[in-house]
Amino acid sequence: MTVTELSMTFGVSEETIRRDLTELEKENGITRVYGGAYLGQTVGQELSYTMRRDIYRKEKSLIATAALPFVQSGDTVFLDPSTTSLALAQNFRNIKNITIITNALYIANAVVESPTARVICAGGELDNNSQTFNGCTTLDTLETYYADKAFVSCTGVSMEGGLTDSSESQARIRRKMLQHAKNKILIADHTKFGKTTLSAIAPLNIIDHVICDQKLSEEWMSYFERHHIRFIGGSFKE
User: Fold this and answer.
1) In-domain check, residue 52
2) Is the pTM of this model over 0.85?
């Protein structure tokens, strides 16, 4: 919920709400974000676009910077409906003749003014909460396209369950993007690892590259090595 919503609900000032949220965060009950807070994400919990956009901004920026060298002039890329993909798209201005395929309205808006970008929006029914297009029409559209690279995030990554998402419809869309891409790139911050959420996207071992904001445990590094997955994180060096 936002600070404004909480202020109206409880009939107190926004300053009081901010102080209370700070105390709750110290008690590990919530996670603060710009303008509000949310409870720890459960298996089936979906966050709004606005809330997702404001979570871990610095980490997403680091991941986007590390992912940008993977994109070259003339590429066709799938960008999944994650705000990490949005951070990447915002850096596409200097890449010539790039084709971007996405089902996220905010990603299409981020690149629409680029003079050399071609944008294909996989339309369908617009979900106002997530600001993404979903449904059979979206999947049918994605079925007709192939890309050089797919940049995909998720809400959970585990060695046993692979990539998972709290939204069944978005899991299907991410799965289709991975199936139709030559190079499969997972872009996820460190909080996603070791978690399993509602819907399966794909096994982790199909991923070619993992880009994270920081180094992971030795157990994870050993897994990546065994499955020939290139990991970039922390110092953003191999």
Assistant:
1) no
2) no
